[in-house]
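Worked example 3. Consider a protein that binds zinc ion.
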Amino acid sequence: MDTLISPSILSADLLHLEQALQECESAGADKIHIDVMDGRFVPNITFGPNIVRACKRATKLPLDVHLMIVEPEKHLEAFAEAGADIITVHYETCPHLHRTLQQIRSLEVHPGVTFNPATPVEGLRYLNGMFDQVLIMTVNPGFGGQKFIPEMLQKIRDTRKLLDEIGSEAVIQVDGGIEASTVAAAYAAGARDFVAGTAIFGYPGGIKAGIRVLKEALENTNALN
Ligand code: DX5
Ligand code: ZN
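Given these inputs, the predicted complex is written out as structure tokens:
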């Protein structure tokens, strides 16, 4: 499929998580995005492996775990065992990124790399084949409901160019402030995987309508291209 929708459960009603995941599934979501925050790398604290294990029991969708934690290498095995299908680590938290990506792959989990808004992506050039997705943060990580940073469109284009230059097949994912009014520009810049929390779980018409609106915005973009 050309584009992927990855609802972020950061904004879900945790008391009714199973129902929320089922709604995502029936509305055609492609993955479930789980934001792990430690109160150190980012100011907020959220989930650990337990929630990944719980989600695994409630949905067949792949679980896409976004680790916003220091020393992620210490916790990869626990998240893999809990049922993570993809683990994305922050470039800023990995002094030995090459080794950390190898470690993720050895756990039979798809590795992803993500970058804060001010972090350049150039290091990817030397890691071809070691990552399956590149997440360009379109807000500063830590909280849902923030505004998309428009300067990140150029970064998405630069990333697309770099991946083409090295012949990488990795997908570009975007996360933060993704809604109907921002998906089209992110798509045009080269993003193909769209993480959304507020625009799905906080959508006034409900989860299914939120996903539909995002998909429609992407279909219109496709039609224009
Ligand atoms: C932010 C998280 C995001 C967050 C996005 O640090 O990584 O996944 O849930 O939330 P929205 O879609 O509300 O910007
Ligand atoms: Zn995230």
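Take a moment to read the result before moving on. The pocket of zinc ion (ligand 2) is lined by residues 8, 33, 35, 66, 175, 195 (CB under 6 Å). The helical segments are 17-26, 49-58, 76-82, 97-106, 152-166, 180-189, 198-201, 207-224.
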